[in-house]
Each structure stands twice: as C-alpha cells, then as structure tokens.
C-alpha cells in the first residue's frame, strides 16, 4: 500500500511540474476559465484509485450525505437529490456495481471532472469510492436538463416550444464556452456525448454541461482517437463514428454534435426524430441528410455556421476557436440590434 509519505512526495513533484503549465492556465483564466493542473493528475495516476480520492481531497464521508428524493432513474443509474453539509446537491450512482462498462464510465468521469473547473461545467464536489455503491456528488441544478425544460414548456403551451432570441443565443454561447474550454485544456478533452439531457439549467437559466463518463483526454489537439465500437447518443453522433465502427476520430465529433444541439436549441425539435421509426435514416446521414436548416429563426450567419459544423467530412468543419469567434460576432450583433431597437422605441415614445 502506498504510504502517506510517498503521496506527499508525489504531490511535491506535481507542484514542480505545475510551473510548466502555468502559461496554459493563465491563457484560460482571462475568459473566466480555470483548471486544476493536469500535470498533478499525471503523478496521482500512479496512486491506486481507492487512495487517489484522499490524495486529491475529493473522497467524501458517506455518512455526511443524506439521501432525499429521486430525481431521475435510467436502466443503469440513479440520480438522487441529497443534503450534504447543509447544501442541496445531487448524487449519481449505479443501480448495479457489477456492470463493468457503466462502472468504468463512472470511474472515468471522476478522473476527468475532478480536475476541471469552469462556470459552464456542473461542479463536481466529490465522490465516495471506498465502499459500494460508488457515488458522485454534484451541485444541484434546479431547472433540470435542457431536454426536460423544453418538454415542460411544450406541455405548458401545448405546442413545440422554442426560446426567445435572448435565451436562444445565451444558451448557444454558453454551450460553446463549455466546449471551447474542454478542447483547449492542456490535454484537450472530447466530451463525446453532447446532448440536451446532458445540458443542465441553474436557477437563473444559465446552462452547464455534465456527464463526462464517455469523455476522453487526448495528448495533442489534432490527434486521432482510436477505439472499437460506437459511443455516444445515436441522433447526435458524428458520421465518422457511425460508419467507421467508432475508429479514427478526433475533436471534430464534438463540433458535429454541437451543431445538432444548436439546431435543437433554436427550433425546439429533436434532430432526426424519424430515426426511432426508420433506422435507414442512419445511412442517409452518411450521405449528408441533416435536419431542416430553414427551421432556424432568420439568421443567415448562424445557419451557415451550423451547416459547416455538421459537414460529413470532419476536415471541413471549423474548430472550436473558429466556432466560438463566429458565435461571439453573431451574439454581439444581436445584442447591438436589440439595443438600437430599444433606443428607437424610447425615442418614438418621447416624440
């Protein structure tokens, strides 16, 4: 078993290594980004996982977590609202710990999210790993997922609901900020499962991205990631994953998924809604079949950007910096037009 002395030695080595990545951290901090050093995590990977929580200070005492009502339940996992040290939080845990794939995803989620801090990522507060069930503790997001929020609003108004331009562009920008941060970490991170049910809303209807169970860290931004089998959610999955057996892809898969999420945010419709009844649509996707870009409210710049982002060829898609820059220009123009319209309205009222 690794001694506390050796853990302290590793921490000291990690602090020395941190100096090498200061420039990367300072680059991200100018836009509100911060990241716990990846260099530290590389040393701590030498520590057995059941001790790593103590070494990294995220291992929690299970008795401090008071389970309250259930929020969501799937075939493999459960999310409960809890009380922890006087605060409302949520815990995520498996229904059965003997499912190796789901268990590995939770371990991977801890390994990724425990080193990340950003205003557009749901805050990881810690985990219980020393006993079963394995539990992950997160901040509570009172307005639930974007997916469920749209469903509630559609039910309320008895029609497909879509947000006002204010919220539409806010959510598109905030989601872009989350991916911009992930793709520009010291070792870039592919989320690999960007979808409305993994985008959560806080009290003030600002969004935060969650669920890093499928995320992967790559050594260099343009590296090709190789694996066997498909991953992610079918309707948001890039063609190169669908049709290449999940092999040979890179950060561009997130750009494709981002485009479909933009389309959902703008229209209130699920992309490829026919996919459940007609699996052959998957093959049409390979040939370039996409949701109707004309359904997006009139903004030619946004439509052009989305069309480029969901291109079948990954090399033709813009990277996240270009996406971020273009979304910034689009949103600033919308805000300026709104200000001018308000000023004109006030002037007419006075006259």
From TrEMBL:
GO MF annotation list: ATP binding; protein serine/threonine kinase activity
Pfam families: Pkinase (PF00069)
Residues of the signal peptide: none
Keywords of the record: ATP-binding, Kinase, Nucleotide-binding, Transferase
PROSITE patterns named in the record: PROTEIN_KINASE_DOM, PROTEIN_KINASE_ST
Domain Protein kinase: 65-329
Keyword DNA-binding recorded: no
Protein name as it appears in the record: Protein kinase domain-containing protein
Species this protein is from: viral metagenome
């Amino acid at each position: 078993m690794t001694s506390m002395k050796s853990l302290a030695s590793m921490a000291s080595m990690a602090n020395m290594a941190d100096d090498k990545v200061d420039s990367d951290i300072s680059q991200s901090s100018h836009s509100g980004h911060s990241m716990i050093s990846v260099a530290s995590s590389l040393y701590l990977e030498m520590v057995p996982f059941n001790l790593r929580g103590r070494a990294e200070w995220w291992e929690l005492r299970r008795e401090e977590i008071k389970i309250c009502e259930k929020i969501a339940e799937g075939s493999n996992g459960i999310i409960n609202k809890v009380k922890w040290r006087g605060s409302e939080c949520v815990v995520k845990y498996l229904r059965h710990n003997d499912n190796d794939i789901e268990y590995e995803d939770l371990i991977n989620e801890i390994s990724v999210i425990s080193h990340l801090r950003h205003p557009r990522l749901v805050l990881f507060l810690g985990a219980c790993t020393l006993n079963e069930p394995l539990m992950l503790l997160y901040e509570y997001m009172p307005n639930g997922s974007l997916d469920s929020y749209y469903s509630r609003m559609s039910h309320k108004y008895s029609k497909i609901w879509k947000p006002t331009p204010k919220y539409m562009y806010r959510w598109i920008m905030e989601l872009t900020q989350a991916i911009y941060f992930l793709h520009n970490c010291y070792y870039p991170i592919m989320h690999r499962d960007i979808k409305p049910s993994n985008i959560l809303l806080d009290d003030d209807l600002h969004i935060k991205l969650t669920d890093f169970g499928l995320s992967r860290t790559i050594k260099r931004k343009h590296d090709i990631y190789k694996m066997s089998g498909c991953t992610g959610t079918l309707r948001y999955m890039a063609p190169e994953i669908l049709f290449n057996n999940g092999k040979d892809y890179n950060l561009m898969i997130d750009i494709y998924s981002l485009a479909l999420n933009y389309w959902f945010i703008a229209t209130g419709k699920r992309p490829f809604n026919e996919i459940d009844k007609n699996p052959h649509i998957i093959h049409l996707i390979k040939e370039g079949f996409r949701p109707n870009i004309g359904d997006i409210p009139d903004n030619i710049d946004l439509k052009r950007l989305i069309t480029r982002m969901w291109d079948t060829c990954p090399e033709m898609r813009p990277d996240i910096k270009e996406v971020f820059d273009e979304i910034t220009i689009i949103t600033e123009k919308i805000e300026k037009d709104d200000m001018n319209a308000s000023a004109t309205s006030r002037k007419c009222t006075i006259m």
